[in-house]
Amino acid sequence: MKAGVVHGKNDIRWEEIKKPEAGPGKVLVKVKYTGICGSDIPRVNGDACHFFPNVLGHEFSGVVEEIGAGVTALKPGDRVAGAPLVPCMQCEDCQKGNYSLCRRYSFIGSREFGSFAEYVAVPEKNAVKFGEEVSFEQGAFFEPAAVALHGLRRLDFQGGKTVAILGGGTIGMLTMQWAKIFGAKTAVVFDILDERLELGRRLGADETVNSGHPDFMDRVRELTGGRGFDCVYETAGNTVTMKMAFQLAANKGQVCFIGTPTRELSFSVEEWENINRKEFRLTGSWMSYSAPFPGDEWTLVAHYFQTGQLKFDDSFIFKKIPLSKISEAFALFKTPGTVKGKILIDSEA
Predict the structure, then answer these.
(1) The whole model's pTM is what?
(2) Secondary structure string (H, E, C) spanning the chain
(3) Listed residue (242, 236, 286) closest to 265, CA to CA
(4) CB-based contacts of 324, cutoff 8 Å, min separation 6
C-alpha cells in the first residue's frame, strides 16, 4: 500500500510499504480521511517523532475491509472513526477507567503506524461505528469532538450554568456546542477574530466577545451581571487566554484548561490571587476516554453528529490534500497563519 512515511525532520515521503493485516481482535480499515493534528506538526517539521521510519495520523475515518479472529462488534463495510489510544488495561489508572492517564499506553499514529496511509489496522474497540447520515469528513473529526466533550465533563458541568469558551478554533466551537447540548444557560465564545465569532454565532453561541478590544471586560460584566462565569473552558493553549480564564471565573466557579500550552507560563501575584479570592476550582483535561473503553464521549459524538445537534461547518476544513501530496500539506505549516482550519489528507485521492 501507499503511505506517508516520516524518515526524519522535514522528511515525509509518499512511498510503498507493507499493508497491515487484521490480526486477532483487530480490524483492517480502508482509510478515507485523516486530519492533521497540531501534535503531528512537530513530529514532521520538528524533532518530536518517536522513531523512524514512522507513519503518523490518528484523526481518521474509513470503512472496515477485513476483521480478525474474535471480532464480533464490526463487519466489513461498516463506516468507522478511529479512537487512537491503546491503553495497557492493566495499570491502576486503566483499572479505574482513567485510560488517558495510562503510562504504558501505545498510540495509533505516533507510537505505532497510523492512518496517513491507504490502510490501518486497529483493535476492535478502537474503531467506532457511525451511520450513513454522518460523512467521512465528520468521521475524521470524531477525535477532536470527543476531546471537547471530555473537557466539558472535567468540570462539574450541569444545565443552567453560564459558560465561557476561550478560543474560537475547532475545539472551542465543539466545546461550545456540547455546552449547549447539555443545557448551558448561556454559552459565550471569546476570540480576537471576527470571522471566528461569526462562526460561533452560526453554530449556536448565545453571545460572542472580541477579547482583543480593550473594554471587553465591560461586556463580560454586562453579560454576567458582574458575577463572572460559572464554567470557563480554555481551548487555545494561549498564554493570554489562560490568564484571562482567571479573570472570567465567578466566585466558586470552575476553570478547565483543554488547550495545550506551547510556551512557558507565569502569573503575577495579582493574577494568581484570583484563585484565593474567588475560590474557583482549576483543572486540566487530557485526551478523550472513559469506561467502558473508549467511552461514551465517542458514542455520543456518533449520535449527535447523526442527529445534527452537533453541527459540522464546512469552514472547519481548510483544505483536502491527496495522500500523494502529504509533504506539501506539512510544508504549509511552515508559514505561520497560512493554515486556517483542519487539513484533511485524502487516502483515496
Answers:
(1) 0.96
(2) CEEEEEEECCEEEEEECCCCCCCCCEEEEEEEEEECCCCCHHHHHCCCCCCCCECCCCEEEEEEEEECCCCCCCCCCCEEEECCEECCCCCHHHHCCCHHHCCCCEEECCCECCCCECEEEEEHHHEEECCCCCCHHHHCCHHHHHHHHHHHHCCCCCCCCEEEEECCCHHHHHHHHHHHHCCCCEEEEEECCHHHHHHHHHCCCCEEEECCCCCHHHHHHHHHCCCCEEEEEECCCCHHHHHHHHHHEEEEEEEEECCCCCCCCCCCHHHHHHHHHHCCEEEECCCCCCCCCCCHHHHHHHHHHHHCCCCCCHHHEEEEEEHHHHHHHHHHHHCCCCCCCEEEEECCC
(3) 242
(4) 2, 14, 349
Q: Would you place residue 314 in the very low, low, confident or very high pLDDT band (cuts 50, 70, 90)?
A: very high
Show the cell assigned to 187: 454559552
Q: Is the distance from CB of 65 to CB of 28 less than 8 angstroms? A: yes
The set of residues, in sequence order, having a beta carbon less than 8 Å from that of 327 and lying 6+ positions away, is 4, 12, 13, 14
Residue 214 has a CB neighbour count (10 Å cut-off) of 7
pLDDT tens digits, one per residue of 108-121: 999 999 999 999 99
Residues 43-86: tens digit of each pLDDT: 999 999 999 999 999 999 999 999 999 999 999 999 999 999 99
Question: Is there a contact between 169 and 196 (Cβ–Cβ < 8 Å)?
Answer: yes
